[in-house]
Design brief:
By secondary structure, this protein is mostly helical. The chain has one domain. The chain is 53% helix and 0% strand.
Length: 91
């Protein structure tokens, strides 16, 4: 392997492919759940650079919902209330 120079990489390494399903999924999430890719990245806790590399989607931050762009604090009382309300509806 060393003689053929394969220690630094495989021969004829293919070019990285751009994700195809993730952008489609993000479109679906945005249409049906009204959640933008920026919000998905924030909920995952991913920086825009990481999200763009993994998802293959460029994040353009707009000022449509500035309160959502920086919303990192979660009110646990509200989440608990939502969950208990959801449980009551299921019963």
């Amino acid at each position: 392997m060393a003689a053929k120079g394969w220690l630094k990489g495989e021969p004829e390494e293919p070019e990285p492919e751009k994700p195809e399903l993730i952008p489609l999924s993000l479109d679906h999430i945005e249409q049906h759940f009204k959640t933008s890719p920026v919000e998905v990245a924030a909920r995952l806790g991913w920086k825009p650079v990481v999200f763009e590399q993994v998802a293959g989607v460029s994040l353009t931050i707009t000022n449509e919902h500035p309160e959502k762009q920086h919303a990192r604090v979660v009110q646990l009382d509200l989440i608990r209330a939502e969950r208990s309300g959801a449980r009551r509806r299921l019963e």
